[in-house]
Amino acid sequence: MLLSGLLVACGTDDPYCDGPECLCVDEPTCAIDCGDTPDCTIDCESTDACDTLCADGCSVDCRGTPSCASECGRDCDVTCSSVDACGTACGDGCRYACDNASRCEVKAGAASDVSCASVGSCEAVVGPGSAVTCENTGSCEVTCRGDCEVSCGGCLVRCEALEEGCEVTCTQGAGMLCPDGSTACNTSC
Questions:
Q1: Would you give the DSSP letter of residue 103?
Q2: CA atoms within 13 A on the CB side of 67
Q3: I need a surface site. Which of 78, 132, 145, 174 has the fewest CB within 10 A?
């Protein structure tokens, strides 16, 4: 669901877009829909809320925005920095980076790369063949839907397909196996 506010469509004569490039700065609320425009690039900076929707191969960059929400297709890049909340749903091959934030949430397809650094909480649900890194997080919860690699200081990792395996590296002390089969690194089950 897109937030109410300014709707910007990539590839139009709208003053916020120049072909597939859209920029929203210092607006109260931005809702940017690139539709099927390939390789759309969206930049949101210093807005109260930014809600984006784009297709395969797009790029979303949110900085200094309290709330950023993105939906994108395959092979997209989403970067959130200095935000309160960054929520993303993306397809296979997604690259998601969230740093210096209160809350980061991502649902990503197969072969995705997820990174949370210096955040209050990070919640990631990833497809098979994905990699997740959590550094300096208050809490980090990862659900792997197939094989995945997770590196974290303090996290709880659930593998939905245990027979395919998850590789969990606890960077701060030893991990422990929880009764439900999940792995806890420097946190309780």
A1: E
A2: 9
A3: 174
Is there a contact between 96 and 90 (Cβ–Cβ < 8 Å)? yes
Its pTM stands at: 0.89
Return d(Cα 78, Cα 39) in angstroms, integer.
Answer: 13
Question: How many residues make up the chain in this entry?
Answer: 189
Q: Could you list the pLDDT tens digit for every one of the 189 residues in the chain?
A: 333 334 444 444 455 677 788 888 888 888 888 877 878 899 999 889 999 988 899 999 999 989 999 999 999 999 999 999 999 999 999 999 999 999 999 999 999 999 999 999 999 999 999 999 999 999 999 999 988 999 998 899 998 866 567 889 999 878 898 998 889 998 888
Checking DSSP bridges between strand 77-90 and strand 67-71, what pairing results, if any? parallel
Q: Is 69 helix (H, G, I), strand (E, B) or coil?
A: strand
The amino acid occupying position 183 is T
Letter for the amino acid at 79?
T
C-alpha 38/C-alpha 40 separation (Å) is 6
State the Cα angle at 74 between 36 and 110, rounded to 5°.
160
Of the candidates 100, 98, 128, 131, which has an alpha carbon nearest to the alpha carbon of residue 113?
Answer: 131
CA separation for the pair 137, 116 (Å, rounded) = 7
Distance CA 73, CA 179 (A): 36
